[in-house]
Design goal:
By secondary structure, the chain is mainly α. It has two domains: 37-93 and 236-356; 95-202, no CATH class. The protein has helices spanning 18-27, 29-55, 61-88, 118-121, 144-160, 235-263, 270-285, 287-298, 303-311, 331-345, 352-356; strands at residues 104-105, 182-183, 194-195, 200-201, 207-209, 214-216, 221-223, 228-230, 314-317, 320-323. The strands form five sheets. The protein has a two-stranded parallel ribbon. Strand 3 and strand 4 form a beta hairpin. The two termini are 31 Å apart. The model is unreliable at 1-5, 118-176 and 321-326 (pLDDT under 50).
Length: 368
C-alpha cells in the first residue's frame, strides 16, 4: 500500500486513481515554485537589457548590453538544463532481479560470515529489522529453488567459498541464484548488507530511501526541493545545479548592477538595482552547499557515507574497539575507492565538456 504521507515522485510512484494524480502533482509544487523563481529572474534580466538596447540604440552601450544579454542567457540556460535533468532523471534504483541472491564478496574482512541457506538457519536464525537500513541484523532466507540447488550442489559450493579471485582478495561465491555482482561492504554483523523492505541484497554504497521506498545505487539523500532521490544516475546533475545557481546568480546579478551604475545614464534606478541584489542573493543561497558537495565528491564521499561515518566511526565487537574500514585503508585502496565512486556518479567518460555540462553519466557497461 502506498504511503500518502510521503511525497511521491514520477520515478517511484505510479498513479492509479484521481487521488494519486493529485498527490503526485502536489508533490511537485516546490520544484514548480523554484522553476518559476528562476524563470522570473531570467525574464527580468532579459527585459532590463532589452530596454537598454532600445534606450541606447545609437550608442556603444547597445553592444555592451547585447554581450551581457548573451552571457546572462547562457548561464540561465545551463541552470535550467541542470534543473530539468535533476527533476526528470531517476536516481538509479536497484531493480535488478539478481540482487535477490547474495553477491560475491571480494572485500578484505577476515570475519566475513557467508549467507546460509534456509535449511541451516531454521533453528537458530533471528531476524531483527530496522527499516532495511545498515543496522539490520539479518541472515536472509534463500528461496526454495535456491535451497534445492544447494542440496544438489552443496559440495561444489563449499569448495568455492573463500577462494581467491584474480586480484588475490578473499571472496565467497554466491549461492546459486544468478548474481555475478561483487561487493566489498558488509553490515555491522560482518554479513552481506540486506534490505528487509525491498527483500534484496544491497550493492556497495546503495541504501534504502524511505520516501521512494526503493534501494538506490550510490544513495546520497532524498531532496524534497527537487522531489527526487539523489543517487548514482542524477548526482552529477544535482551537483552541477548547486554550482550553476551561484554562477548564474552572480553573473546575471553582477551584470545588472554593472549596467545600473555604468551603462545606464542619469540617476540610479533603485528598482533594477534591487533586482540585481536579489539575483546575487539567490546565487549565494546554494554556494556553500555546492562547495561542500564538490569537496565530498573529490574525496569519494557522499552525504550518506559521511552520516554513517559520523555515527559509527568506532564500533565495538565482542567488547573490543574496532576501527572502521575507512580508517585502516591504505592510500592506494583509498584512491581506488574514490575512482570507483567517480566512475559511478560521473561516468567513465570524463571529458571536460561532459563533466561541466549536465549530460547523464556514461559508463563502460559494468553495472558496479
Amino acid at each position: 500500500m502506498e504511503d500518502y504521507c510521503s511525497m511521491p515522485n514520477r520515478h517511484s510512484f505510479t498513479p492509479r486513481s484521481c487521488w494519486d494524480w493529485c498527490c503526485l502533482c502536489s508533490a511537485y509544487l516546490v520544484p514548480l515554485f523554484l522553476l518559476l523563481l528562476i524563470l522570473g529572474l531570467a525574464v527580468t534580466f532579459n527585459v532590463y537589457f532589452i530596454l537598454l538596447c532600445v534606450w541606447y540604440h545609437n550608442d556603444w552601450r547597445i553592444a555592451v548590453s547585447l554581450i551581457c544579454l548573451i552571457i546572462g542567457d547562457a548561464c540561465a540556460a545551463v541552470l535550467l538544463w541542470a534543473f530539468y535533468a535533476v527533476v526528470n532523471t531517476s536516481a538509479g534504483y536497484v531493480l535488478d532481479e539478481s540482487w535477490r541472491y547474495p553477491p560475491i564478496y571480494i572485500g578484505d574482512s577476515t570475519v566475513y560470515q557467508p549467507p546460509r541457506s534456509e535449511n541451516n538457519d531454521n533453528n537458530n536464525n533471528t531476524t531483527t529489522s530496522m527499516n532495511g537500513n545498515e543496522n539490520s541484523v539479518h541472515s536472509p532466507p534463500m528461496s526454495m529453488d535456491v535451497d534445492n540447488n544447494n542440496n544438489n550442489n552443496n559440495n561444489n559450493n563449499n569448495n568455492h567459498i573463500n577462494n581467491s579471485i584474480n586480484d588475490g582478495t578473499s571472496c565467497s561465491v554466491n549461492i546459486e541464484g544468478g548474481n555475478p555482482n561483487t561487493v566489498r561492504m558488509l553490515d555491522r554483523n560482518n554479513k552481506l548488507r540486506y534490505c528487509e523492505i525491498c527483500r534484496q541484497y544491497k550493492p556497495d554504497r546503495a541504501y534504502h530511501c524511505e520516501v521512494c521506498e526503493r534501494c538506490t545505487y550510490n544513495f546520497d539523500h532524498h531532496c524534497p526541493v527537487m522531489n527526487n532521490c539523489i543517487g548514482r544516475d542524477n548526482y552529477k546533475m544535482f551537483l552541477l545545479f548547486l554550482l550553476y545557481v551561484p554562477l548564474a546568480g552572480f553573473v546575471d546579478g553582477g551584470l545588472e548592477l554593472l549596467a545600473v551604475f555604468v551603462i545606464e545614464k542619469g540617476d540610479v534606478s533603485m528598482a533594477w538595482m534591487m533586482v540585481g541584489i536579489v539575483t546575487c542573493m539567490m546565487g549565494l543561497s546554494t554556494l556553500f552547499f555546492g562547495l561542500a558537495h564538490l569537496w565530498w565528491l573529490c574525496h569519494g564521499q557522499s552525504t550518506m557515507s559521511r552520516h554513517i561515518a559520523a555515527r559509527v566511526r568506532v564500533r565495538r565487537v565482542n567488547g573490543n574497539r574496532t576501527v572502521m574500514r575507512d580508517e585502516r585503508q591504505s592510500e592506494e585502496e583509498r584512491r581506488e575507492e574514490v575512482r570507483r565512486h567517480w566512475d559511478a556518479v560521473l561516468g567513465t567518460d570524463r571529458r571536460w565538456w561532459r563533466v561541466i555540462l549536465p549530460f547523464p553519466p556514461t559508463r563502460d557497461g559494468c553495472e558496479e
